[in-house]
Write the structure tokens for this entry.
Amino acid sequence: MFIYNSLTNKKEEFIPINKNKITMYVCGPTVYNYVHIGNMRPVITFDMVYKYFKYLGYDVTYASNFTDINYKITKAAIDNNVTEREIANKYIEAYLEDLTSYNCADIDYRPRVIDNLDNIFNFISKLIEKDYAYVVDGDVYFRVKKIKDYGILSNQNIEELESGARVEVDKKKEDALDFALWRSSSEGEVFDSPWGKGIPGWHTECVVMIDGIFNGKIDIHGGGIDLQFPHHENEIAQSMALHNHHLANYWMHNGHINVDGQKMSKSLNNFILARDFIKNYSSNVIKISMFKTHYRLPLNFTSDLLNEAINIDDKIRNVIKSANVYRNVNNLEFNANIKDDIFEKYMNDDFNTPNVISYLLELVKKLNELIRKNDNNLIDVASKILVICDVLGLKYNVDKWHKDDILLYNNWIDARNNKDFDKADLLRKKLIDKNIL
Ligand SMILES: [Zn+2]
């Protein structure tokens, strides 16, 4: 399969470090408020990536962190007159609730900064020992210029970066490009470190967590495009300093979300909270809206797109419902292990989900025809749709009926065939109430 690698700026054949295993890490949220649907794009994208690798039969380990120590959390704590831990715990819980309701909570590790402080101290100490970092007044900074290929990920050279960085001159730093690994602070919740009280810089935690969980280079590091610089560039710089590798072989970045042409952001106040969206629409709808655009491209969220996604979701739901009736009445089973070459061809081309959505609609059409013909092949086509939807994280109800329900259904068909319409209507209503029809 081929994946676009931001590190090399090209689509590359994907070869995992260990033949049957895949390791992946995606930067998680800073937990000081509820997430909006723009924040859900990396979550939904990498959930699809994770599920697809599992479909292919890989043993995948997926980790994503919580940034639960950060000045934004301190500010929220002060504003609300509570502790930083209360803010962090509240929004971690809310985030996990959101992920559960969006059917993308399945992951292997969710490390928190608060549990990794000693590892962070060790990591920073090693950088100081190797002369890649220096201490000034209780702050610790990273010496960017010691990294020869700094800028590799974001495609910038050090001179350009330098002239851009000079605008914000910090006299403490040796060089404008240097970034903080540890910041001295006395405001709010602070931690004792070898360099005094303060909080860790954001760019270190992910490298430390990857070291702790995976003990070396990983296959895939992902995140939103806005994290490419400086966050991911700085993660790479620290990894180069200590391990002499780029932390991950493949760096994947998803595009941001626009609302009617404008970037969705908290400052523009044009965002929809993930938990509010789901009150009116199913998570399938937002996923279909997202997957209709390739993950690397910016996504323009409009009411037309939303309506189109609702329409596609309805089409899939209706056809799956009918197929499930056929399966139950005929005592058949869907095949959860069925494979589909066309689906794989699209997914193996850097997760081309827009093509997958078009292909799903072709399968839906085909399934409708087979249902009309009462053709047993419909079970295979329905199974393929269900397997593809599963990888995309789309959920449809395929409950196995109780035998009483099968009886009820058969009675309805009999009543209809006998032209006993009053009885048929009554039974039909019962079946609808049970969500069978
Ligand atoms: Zn990160």
